[in-house]
Amino acid sequence: MVFICWNLMGCLKSVPVQYRKMDPPLVWLLLIPCFHLIWNFFVYLRLPASYQACFAATGKGDGSDCGRSIGLAYAICSACCLIPFLNYLAGPAAIVLLIIFLVKVNGYKKLVGSEAPPSAVPPSQPVV
Predict the structure, then answer these.
(1) Which of 54, 72, 92, 104 has the fewest CB atoms inside 10 Å of its own CB, making it the most exposed?
(2) Helices 2-14 and 36-58: angle between axes, nearest 10 degrees
(3) 70 — pLDDT class (breaks 50, 70, 90)
């Protein structure tokens, strides 16, 4: 779980500050027992919303929901793991959805990281 929190925090840090829907260190609240069942709904919905805001402003992205539906499905499956007998279906589904979500947001992290901020672009110099 520590690796997942570290990975999600890195994804949030890749989004420019003005487009973030939550602060990256808040991801670590997922380590609190029982509270993480509620906090999943915040983290796994706000991270895609941050990517959507960033892509809407920059014109990049593929026009999808940036993994929001997968994150919501994961949060629901994770909460359903508390229900006896349903946990046999919800547990494996949650693991698969989590892996898909992490792969998807890491792809968006690379897409956001591939664009250079305007201040980092060196000015063009005349050829002498």
Answers:
(1) 92
(2) 30
(3) very high
116, part of any domain = no
- Contact indicator for 80, 90 with CB cutoff of 8 Å: yes
State which residues form the domain around 63. 2-111
CA distance 105 to 9: 11
Say which residue the tokens 């890749």 belong to. 14
Prediction pTM value? 0.83
The answer to whether 74 and 101 are in contact (CB under 8 A) is yes
Residue 61's nearest CA partner among 16, 102, 19, 109 is 109
With left for phi above 0 and alpha for psi between -120 and 50, is residue 38 left, alpha or beta?
alpha
Burial of 53 (0-12, 13-18, 19+ CB in 10 A): middle
The amino acid at residue 49 is: A
